[in-house]
Amino acid sequence: MLEAIHRNMALGVPIYGMNRGTVGFLLNEFNDKDLMQRLENAHEEKLRPLHMRVITDSGIQQDAYGFNEVSLLRQTRQAANLEVSIDGKVRIDRLMCDGCLVATPAGSTAYNLSAHGPILPIGSGVLALTPISAFRPRRWQGAVLRQDAHIRLTVLDHYKRPVSAVADAHEVRNVAEVEIRVDPDKEVTLMFDPNHNLEERILNEQFIP
After folding, report:
1. What is the mean pLDDT of residues 116-141?
2. pLDDT tens-place string over residues 155-203
3. Element (DSSP H or E) covering residue 38
4. What is d(CA 155, CA 178) in angstroms, rounded to the nearest whole number?
């Protein structure tokens, strides 16, 4: 589904997906009966992606978009050292970890949830900043940020402790710095059956034992 979103983002047409796999969180149940009626009755959810701007250790800039999350991950056996800045202010001068991710509400039930990040309701206007196996500060469990936050993650010791950055399925290796923000000018519309809408599914995830 994420691949379909990225391929068709520029078209500006609503996307209605049906699940033929396993999890399919952004998909409806597969059934081709009364499909036109289902489309007419479908609810729409508008998603805005995270814009990832990466500067590599060789000075090359790359841009990519993530509708679920942007994640930084260590490339070797050594932990990553990251400086975390929010809106131009350093909040953590050295985060020792396996990685760190920024998740949208739509992506908060994916990798973010596996990393023990919070589930975010659709329309909440916030993002999850979640560490992955943090070693120092040991008790830091992440933060919930406003959707318009400007997040900068700087890789310390990037030659000795290389880090990759991933926006959905787009990976950039050997990064030195990553800037992440929601792009207010890009948007996709997903369509869901009334009894299978995204808001209800995210709410249900918070009550699964």
Report:
1. 93
2. 999 999 999 999 998 999 999 999 999 999 999 999 998 877 778 878 8
3. helix 35-41
4. 8
> What are 5's two structure tokens?
């979103």
Task: For residues 178 and 192, give the distance between their C-alpha atoms in angstroms, rounded to a whole number.
Answer: 33
Whether residue 142 sits in one domain with residue 195: no
**SS3 label, residue 34:** coil
3-state SS string over 90-155? EEEEEEEECEEEEECCCCCCCHHHHCCCCCCCCCCCEEEEEEECCCECCCCCCEEEECCCCEEEEE
In this structure, are 158 and 199 located in the same domain? Answer: no
Query: Which residue in the block uniquely carries the two structure tokens 């979640």?
Result: 130
Which residues have C-beta within 8 Å of that of residue 110, sequence separation ≥ 6?
A: 25, 68, 69, 103
* Strand pairing class (50-56; 80-86): unpaired
Same domain? For 94 and 169 the reply is yes
Chain segment 11-39, per-residue pLDDT in tens: 889 999 998 887 777 888 898 889 999 99
Domains contained in the chain, number: 2
Domain that holds residue 199: 2-47+186-205
The tokens for 107 are 């992506």
Whether 138 has a pLDDT exceeding 90, the answer reads: no
C-alpha 47: how far from chain center: 11
Q: Retrieve residue 141's tokens.
A: 């469990």
Q: What is the pLDDT of residue 95?
A: 97
Dmax over CA atoms of the chain, in Å, equals: 58
Let me know whether 26 and 105 are in one domain.
no
